[in-house]
Write a structure and sequence with these properties.
four-stranded antiparallel sheet, elongated, 16 helices, single chain, alpha+beta
């Protein structure tokens, strides 16, 4: 009221003094303010109108699909982040019904690339679900990184300016980071890593991948010393054999005559054998040619008896390549009643462990299977004998050692490199160390706050790494109950962990669809590998330390070059989750095990050779060649391992329902 009276008095004063123009200007200003306030009211009403999301997205979608073919595949990348944030914003504002109809109307546009995420998001029915669901929280807390060429980016900006699409502009501004590159649009085949959830920092992935990685092997490792000793002994044996062969040839050549024909045939045969031997040596040289690096961790000493067993294994190692495939030994668990969560095999295949939903860990000694049953006892956490007789089958054909101590389902188990220790991790957020010789629990490691999905010993033993639902990976040593390092950075669960062969790095695979490589000494992330379209469930390092393979929930296997951070060979490997990956000892073959009940063998050596030839071409990829698929009747493959002698071990539980 006071303002109105003041305005009237000002107007009367201007009229009295004859300031006509000023009086008109004041009236115009008053009229303009009243119209803007009315428009603000109408705008605030439209702000609560759920139709603005539908209209805005529908117009953006139509424009993107009608763009020039050269730029269309790049502009369509923007639609998925905008779609899910429109849906979640509608839910957050309480327009649940409109959110459902919006979701079902445009869902099929993204079904091919993001089907698993859409299945999870479909369950969001209230604002409370947005806070409770991990995926929704991760999507709202972090930003998408989208790669576009300069011209595609300009086209998008022009569209948003012309149409005044404020809702779409707000979502794109707030939720998307654009990585704009000069030149022509990227190829459609490069679509693997062009849309990725990367956190809030704009250049995070780029900064991480510029750091240096020393991917070689440990200098003066046990295996290297044993290989040298073996090659020296082989040389001396070969020299003595050659000397004997020369003496024999001289004697036979002096005889002459009709024996000339068979001698020539024998010489040709020796040449063929020599050629195959050279081929085997070239496969083995992939490992021997790798650079040597100093270990950043203090490595434990290797006992003499272990060195002797390694030497024996190397002496009897089978050389594998695309023509010489490995023998496979498959251990099948029967009558598990879907209670087996994980399994693992010792390096020599003599021990097999299973982790169960009833919190138990069971270890089978392969040498004792089939022998008469003996009365045995299991030991719990306190190490005291519980006097529980192992109830085997009536014939005593399934002897096992029972380890009890966890208070929840066991999700991972792993043997130490020499089989004398066993690690297990559980939903009770602990990791337990067991002795396979004493059959007792030695240590309970507490540090994670949530279930621990995976645990793995380092290649030299003593150190181990764990992966958890708390979005961290941790490095431990057997003699300390607290973690040495905590690796934090993933945007969702860390599902699997794997050591690099030189023990200076660990790799982690996550539900955020990325794989990261961490420096053990500093705890920093030094590589981020983006390309998977679902959670990463398995990892494997090549024996020379240069490459890493990762498998995901959709059945895709990707092989990465650690030095560049690029994917060198993507392939749709299986029809279901890839639960295990393993490289052969010389790195020529990759084995993959899946929930689709198959083990597949891939030719790594030929594809990496082709890649080295094409190194000059940036971003060149070369698909791995499938050598053989080995189907089981009805047994999903839980775990794979190549022994030091290059025998492939596999485990799985018979699933009559599959």
């Amino acid at each position: 009221m006071e303002d109105e009276e003041m305005e009237k008095k000002v107007q009367q004063y201007l009229h009295r003094k004859g300031f006509r123009l000023t009086e008109l200007a004041l009236q115009e200003e008053r009229n303009r303010l009243s119209t803007t306030s009315l428009s603000d009211v109408s705008l605030s009403r439209s702000d609560n109108d759920p139709a603005r999301y539908y209209d805005g997205y529908n117009k953006l979608r139509t424009w993107a699909y009608n763009s020039l073919d050269q730029y269309k595949h790049e502009l369509l990348r923007v639609l998925y982040p905008v779609f899910i944030h429109c849906f979640m914003d509608l839910v957050a504002e309480g327009h649940t019904q409109e959110a459902r109809s919006f979701f079902h109307r445009f869902r099929e546009d993204h079904e091919l690339m993001h089907s698993r995420d859409l299945q999870k998001l479909e369950g969001i029915l209230s604002p409370l679900h947005l806070e409770e669901m991990d995926l929704a929280r991760s999507l709202r807390e972090n930003k998408f990184r989208i790669k576009l060429c300069e011209y595609s980016y300009e086209l998008l900006l022009q569209y948003l300016q012309k149409t005044q699409a404020l809702v779409m502009l707000g979502i794109i501004n707030e939720r998307i980071i654009f990585e704009v590159s000069a030149g022509q649009p990227s190829l459609i085949s490069d679509d693997a890593d062009v849309v990725a959830l990367v956190g809030t920092s704009k250049d995070l992935a780029k900064q991480i991948n510029q750091k240096e990685v020393h991917w070689g092997l440990i200098e003066d490792s046990v295996e290297e010393r044993m290989e040298k000793a073996l090659s020296d002994s082989d040389k001396t044996e070969a020299e003595s054999k050659d000397a004997d062969a020369e003496d024999n040839n001289k004697k036979k050549s002096s005889e002459g005559g009709k024996q000339g024909g068979p001698l020539n045939k024998k010489l040709k045969k020796d040449k063929v054998v020599g050629a195959t031997g050279k081929n085997n040596k070239s496969e083995a040289s992939m490992v021997s040619a790798a650079p040597r690096v100093k270990p950043e961790l203090t490595l434990p000493a290797t006992p003499v008896e272990v060195e002797q067993s390694i030497l024996e294994d190397l002496r009897n190692r089978a050389q594998l390549n695309n023509l010489a495939l490995p023998s496979v030994s498959f251990y099948t668990f029967l009558n598990t009643h879907n209670r087996l969560n994980c399994s693992s095999i010792s390096n020599d295949g003599s021990l097999v462990v299973g982790g169960f939903s009833d919190s138990s860990v069971k270890v089978w000694d392969m040498a004792k299977i089939g022998q008469p049953a003996k009365t045995s006892s299991s030991q719990g956490e306190n190490g005291s004998s519980q006097g529980e007789h192992l109830s085997l089958t009536s014939e005593g054909k399934r002897p096992y050692t029972l380890f009890q101590g966890h208070s929840g389902p066991v999700y991972s188990a792993a043997f130490s490199p020499f089989g004398d220790f066993l690690l297990s991790s559980s939903s009770d957020s602990t990791i337990r160390l067991w002795s396979t010789k004493l059959n007792a629990n030695l240590v309970c490691y507490k540090g994670h706050n949530y279930p621990v999905w995976d645990v793995q010993f380092s290649p030299v033993g003593h150190y181990f790494a764990s992966a958890s639902h708390d979005r961290t990976a941790r490095i431990w040593s057997m003699d300390k109950i607290q973690p040495l390092r905590i690796m934090a950075g993933h945007l969702a669960d860390v599902d699997c962990v794997q050591w690099h062969v030189n023990c200076n790095y660990i790799a982690t695979g996550s539900s955020d669809k990325t794989v990261r490589l961490w420096d053990v000494q500093t705890g920093e992330c030094i590589r981020m590998f983006i390309g998977h379209r679902s959670m990463v469930l398995s990892l494997a390092m090549s024996p020379d330390g240069r490459y890493m393979a990762s498998g995901d929930e959709d059945g895709t296997i990707m092989m990465w070059d650690l030095s560049t951070g690029r994917c060198v060979s993507p392939l749709a490997g299986h029809n279901s989750c890839v639960w295990s990956l393993a490289f052969s000892c010389e790195g020529a073959l990759l084995a993959s095990g899946s929930a689709d009940c198959t083990v597949k063998l891939w030719d790594v050596a030929s594809s990496t050779k082709a890649l080295k030839v094409d190194d000059t071409k940036a971003g060149s990829t070369n698909r791995l060649r499938l050598l053989k698929a080995l189907p089981t009747k009805s047994t999903p493959v839980y775990n794979l391992r190549f022994s030091r002698r290059n025998l492939l071990f596999a485990t799985g539980a018979l699933s009559l329902g599959s």
